Structure formats: structure tokens, C-alpha cells
Amino acid sequence: MPTTSTTHVCLVLDKSGSMQSVYEDALGAVNGYITRAKQDRNLYEARFSLITFNSQGVDTIRANEVMETVKPLAHGEYSCAGMTPLYDAVGRGIGVLDEATAGKDAAKAILVVMTDGMENDSKEFSHAKITGLIKARQDAGWLIVFLGEGLDVAKQGEAMGAAKDSVAAYSGGEGLRAAGGVVVRVTARYAAMSGDVRQARDKAAFTPKERDELAGKK
After folding, report:
1. Minimal CA–CA distance to 81: which of 123, 121, 50, 49?
2. Distance of alpha carbon 6 from alpha carbon 157, whole angstroms
């Protein structure tokens, strides 16, 4: 029997100025994830939140909605400009999931971050604070997936405490667009597992094939 009723997904999407060059691909990644998740028996009942961020604001676009009712991210809801308050955005995502899972011992939490740049504008969260939060949530069994444009950006995820097996680099617009399908498979594996959530997280590690897809390799 699917376990999706207790799975909570929060996707954190960069909308800094540099994302403009892959604007349609970013929309494709998010909407590809939503479309595929609605069709997945382990995710269609999950609760979904979406956060976008730049130096003009960290915005919650979707808040704890049932996956099968989530509307695609529209052009009018996503515009790119400014800098990259990555720590503040991740902190907001953790807060959203904390609130959604409060008092629910069986709940699973998934935080997915997609960014093309380095942290350069956070005001609320420091590196040390966000690293402590990430490590604590992973110790509690959360799945934290970090996708960065190129190896240097992706390595931020590890530096922030994300497990190496759940950190991956994507290459350009093609790799970003592929992320929608890849992340569905990763998060579905986690959602499908019953029992120890830590074991579920281990099952959700990126496979070599999935890393190749993100890198644009056929």
C-alpha cells in the first residue's frame, strides 16, 4: 500500500538573475516533477510546497498542497533577477517542512534544492546555522536533495551538510530540465519505503545513470 499520505515535499527553486538563461528549463523541471509525481503511486497523495528565491524575496508559491491538485508553475509566478540568498531559502524550506510534519511521527520529509549559483545574499541564516539544521534533519531521517549547476555549485550542498549521495551536478538547461524526471524517481524511492526512514533515505541515493542524465549524457 502506498505510504504517500505522510510524505511532505518542499522544492526550493533559484530565481536569481543568472537563471534567466535557463528560464524555460527551470519551469520544465518543476512542472515535469509535478506532472510525473501526480502519476506516481507513491507521490500522488504527498503534500507539496514550492519556494522560489532571489535577493528580492523568498516566496512560498505552493504551500502544503495535495500533489494531485497542484497547479503547474506559471510564467507569471516565476521571474529571474537579483542575487542568491541560498541559506535563507533553504532555511525557509526547512521551516515549511517542520511545520507540515509537526506532531506526525510517521511523516517523511523531502527537501529538494535547485540552484545555479553560490550563496551571496542571505540575511537570516548563516552557513553554520543552516549546516546545523540540515544535519539535524538528516539525522531525523529527512531526505535532502541538492542539485547545483556544475560541480562547484553542487559542492555547496555537501558543504552545507547534505549527504554526498543526494548531491548532484546538473549541466545547463538540458540537465536542469532532466531534473524533473530524475528527482521524481529519487523521491518516489524514498516515499515507497516503509519502516526506518533512514533506510528509506539510503535507497534514494542518485544512481550513476541518474547522474549521467543530469549531466546531459545520453
Report:
1. 121
2. 26
Q: CATH number for the 4-214 domain, one of 3.40.50.410, 3.30.1360.20, 3.90.1200.10, 3.40.640.10?
A: 3.40.50.410
Asked if 78 contacts 15 with a C-beta cutoff of 8 angstroms, the reply is: yes
**Angstrom distances, CA of residue 127 to CA of 39, 121, 130, 136, 217:** 37, 12, 5, 14, 33
pLDDT for 218? 66
3-state secondary structure of 193: coil
Q: What is the mean pLDDT of the chain?
A: 94
Asked if pLDDT for residue 3 goes beyond 70, the answer is no
Name, in order, each residue with C-beta under 8 angstroms of 89's C-beta and a sequence gap of 6 or more: 12, 14, 51, 53, 58, 113
Residues 6+ apart with CB under 8 A from 63: 49, 96
Cβ(37)–Cβ(49) below 8 Å: no
Going by C-alpha positions, the residue among 56, 110, 62 that lies closest to residue 88 is 56
- 190 or 194: which carries more pLDDT confidence? 190
Q: CA separation (Å) from 17 to 79, 152, 174?
A: 9, 18, 18
DSSP reduced 3-state for 164: helix
Q: Cβ of 52: how many Cβ atoms within 10 Å?
A: 25
Instruction: For strands 7-14 and 47-54, give the pairing.
Output: parallel
Distance CA 154, CA 114 (A): 9
Euclidean distance between CA atoms 85 and 149, whole angstroms: 16
